[in-house]
Design goal:
The structure holds 2 protein chains of 2 kinds. Helix content of chain A is 34%, strand content 26%. Chain A is an alpha/beta fold. In chain A, a hairpin with a 2-residue loop joins strand 4 (86-91) and strand 5. Chain B has one domain (4-222). Chain B is 83% helix and 0% strand. Chain B has helices spanning 4-22, 24-44, 51-74, 76-79, 83-88, 94-124, 131-155, 161-172, 174-188, 193-222. In chain B, helix 3 (51-74) runs parallel beside helix 7 and helix 9 runs antiparallel to helix 10. The longest helix of chain B has 31 residues, at 94-124. The chains are: A alpha/beta, B mainly alpha.
Chain lengths: 265, 224
């Protein structure tokens, strides 16, 4: 699988983050995300079934799938929130079972929920997140992330009084505060206006330390196809289809999506 | 990995900040516990002879049920808006997250108890400010918070967490409650330290076991 991120991978992986005492992504890891034979069950229900997935450094993979196809479960497993039932998962070169802490250093997650404390102000939320990551230059980082997402003038307000769109922007600022090389996004476009969507596109591809690797799950074909450089379809608990975006025709992809998911797009 | 104590401090401070805004835990706990003390006082009408017999039980009924009420709220804050996921995403040790949440709960329970104790003293006409009693309260509350934080984390993902938490929590803390009631009675009655020592030992052993077990089990409780 060719990706346009491979030429930036060395820069990405060679970044220095010793000042923060952070665990760098494994410089020898050829892939940002490597999943082999991943199975995840909840009781008798098999959500992911022997799933394989590779994503090179700098790649921008959009995972499409209908509701209930396991997109959120896949992202939860990659984010170390959910334990695989079987299979091997490596993120940023680190094994999920033996080194989940190093993986958490290297990922940023955006989900349907904003992951923010309602009763704290936007600034207090970002400060808390920064402290939990042991970040230095926290004020500067907050200012930069808030500027990037256009929430600087809302930092003093309680999250509970912010609009859904502003909460989502703040959530994105939180996700990139520690400048992770890998972003995991679970339908991040929900609740964002056009301006915020453009900011999101910009934020996703460029971090301070180089191009980010992004895995984004969505069921919006139009938005996903506009953003990614690789596309995949999650169906039947597996990656049923995975191709370079450049090789995919939008109209044909809709047919392919319908074929694998049984849903007319 | 972020340092253990900076993580603990960040979690405790975040919980205190949120509580200062909402006062959810302290107000609900205080209202419930004050009401319990007043009802017991009027129901029992304790004479000077009866007070040392019933007062320790009344005190610990109020503290125990108020504690359960407070512990129920401990992880509600984390559950709302998916913050539990946010916490789990941080590259911190799960033991540090546990200790942070536990110390936050301990702090709120001690604040509530500090308010309740003078009221209890007035209603039952006794002096509660005795080193023995204060030490029992501190040790027993630590045990409550240690095991209660773990069960609160378990219960928060259930639909009926207000029922599940007491069902899990109260049978486990029975040794602490018994020890605390008996030792408090001795302290309020002006009994010697030697009579309280074995109850201190019981509570101390429970505290250590609860802290070690809960810190170890916390990650397994939270992760799917």
């Amino acid at each position: 699988m060719a990706t346009d991120g491979e030429d930036t991978g060395g820069r990405q992986r060679g970044r220095s983050c010793q000042a923060e005492g952070m665990v760098e992504a494994d410089a020898n890891a050829p892939l940002a995300i490597e999943v082999k034979g991943l199975t995840k069950t909840y009781g008798p229900q098999v959500v992911l079934r022997d799933l394989d997935l590779d994503l090179a450094w700098g790649g921008f993979l959009i995972v499409f799938g209908p509701n209930g196809s396991g997109k959120t479960t896949l992202i939860k497993v990659l984010a170390t929130i959910s334990r695989p039932t079987r299979g091997e998962v490596r993120v940023a070169g680190f094994d999920m079972k033996s080194n989940p802490g190093a993986i958490r250093r290297n990922i940023g997650l955006v989900t349907h929920q904003p992951l923010l404390y309602d009763d704290l102000t936007a600034l207090e939320n970002l400060k808390f997140h920064g402290r939990m990551f042991g970040l230095t230059n926290l004020e500067e980082r907050i200012e930069k992330a808030a500027d990037l997402m256009g929430v600087s003038s809302y930092l003093g307000r309680k999250v509970s009084i912010l609009s859904h769109g502003m909460q989502k922007r703040l959530s994105l600022a939180r996700a990139v505060l520690h400048d992770p090389p890998i972003l995991l996004l679970d339908e991040p476009e929900t609740g964002l206006d056009q301006e915020a969507l453009e900011m999101l596109g910009q934020m996703m591809v460029s971090g301070d330390r180089g191009r980010r690797t992004v895995l984004m799950a969505t069921h919006s074909l139009e938005k996903g196809l506009a953003l990614g450089n690789q596309v995949a379809i999650l169906a039947g608990g597996k990656i049923a289809y995975h191709e370079d975006r450049a090789l995919v025709d939008e109209a044909m992809f809709k047919d392919t999506y319908g074929h694998f998911t049984g849903i007319a797009s | 990995m972020t340092g253990f104590w900076p993580t603990v401090a960040a979690v405790v401070w975040k919980d205190i900040q949120a509580e200062l805004r909402t006062k959810d835990i302290v107000i609900s706990v205080l209202a419930f516990a004050l009401l319990s003390l007043i009802i017991f006082n009027f129901a029992l009408r304790p004479s000077p002879q009866l007070t040392p017999v019933v007062a320790p039980g009344v005190l610990w009924v109020a503290f125990t049920f108020a504690g359960v009420l407070g512990l129920t709220r401990t992880f509600v804050l984390e559950k709302e808006q998916g913050n539990l996921i946010g916490l789990l995403l941080t590259p911190t040790s799960r033991e540090a997250l546990y200790v942070g949440k536990m110390l936050g709960s301990l702090f709120f329970m001690l604040v509530a108890e500090a308010v309740l104790l003078p009221v209890f003293a007035v209603l039952f006409n006794i002096s509660p400010f005795q080193p023995g009693l204060l030490l029992i309260i501190l040790m027993a509350t630590l045990g409550f918070a240690a095991i209660g934080t773990l069960f609160s984390a378990m219960a928060v993902n259930t639909r009926s967490r207000e029922i599940v938490l007491p069902m899990l929590f109260l049978p486990i803390v029975v040794p602490i409650i018994i020890g605390a009631v008996v030792a408090s009675g001795t302290a309020l009655d002006g009994g010697p330290w030697s009579d309280m020592v074995r109850w201190f030992q019981l509570i101390a052993v429970f505290d250590v076991l609860a802290l070690v077990f809960s810190a170890f089990a916390f990650e397994h409780v939270l992760q799917e």
